[in-house]
Amino acid sequence: MSDATTPATPAHCAAVLVDYQNLYHFLKNRLAHPASPGDQAAAMVEALRQRLASEGVRIARGYAYADFGGLDEHVRHVQRALYLHGIQPVYVPSTMHRNTTDLQLALDAVEIRDRHPEVDTFVLFSGDRDYVPVVQALQAAGRRVVMVAFRDHLSAHLLDFTQAGYFLPAEDLLPEEARGAMAEDGASPSAPAVHDPARFNTVKELPDDRDYDALEVIERFFGQYEEVYLTPLLRKLSEELGDFDDTDPKTLIGELEEAGAVRLERRRGMPYDYTVLILNPAHPAVQEIREEVRGAHASGDGLAEEAYDFVDDEDEEFEGADAEYDDDFDEDEAVEEEGDFEEDEEDEAA
Fold it and tell me: Are 106 and 132 spatial neighbours (Cβ–Cβ below 8 Å)?
């Protein structure tokens, strides 16, 4: 795979499929005010159209996938901008599983491949590793695939396990003034100073979808807290996700910490010390899940309301250090569980 563009023969037809939810969140958390993520995304789509046209490729079909109602900007403004650039918005509710956008994009790609043989080029605007099977399926059918993604947001899996025709850096599509407004990797223009990225592990891609599910539970049920008590969190993860593939909640927390999405800190308390979890707001996965969950709450989704009702009901339980042990959760068991977690971490470090 190469960064160099490969000229296409004239009269090629392309399908452009944009993971807009992913693109919007990335721009929102990297662009300095007053740059608008929606306007910059539209400008990038237009730059992509011009780039393809210069190579003899016309866009026959274009789709952008997102929960547009959950975006911060005016829905009509964003959708109108996409329409003007030949891209049809596809509404995918973020209240469903986080991979819903990926799945819908993949299904549409396969359908276009099968029903429209005239489309010989597929442009996938996303660097998510979830699209590896899609790229492979398109290439197996003899289609040319163009990956468009930001370099520091491109999954190594796409680079290592696919030969995607060629890779087009998304930075090249940004207007010049927007490039200067981009924050450095690992930094967030809106992140509070207390969440210094240096206090977390190096930001890495989460290794598995189950880690995204764990983040979603954390944000849904404990999102209003700066710090989350570990014991009730482990219990809630077990209730919501259960144990699967021999993976318990402590393992999920360990994976999140290793990827720099969270960190654990020990607190002194009476009668027991306790452990809290802190989310890293500069981690792309945390930003994505946070936007999805808060967007669902703003739209009045039932799952979100259930989560916030849970938080309201549990407020008194989490007010003090001792309060993490409620009547249904044995104090000795809670201390032992946190102790086991820390011993596991020490063993891994050794």
Answer: no
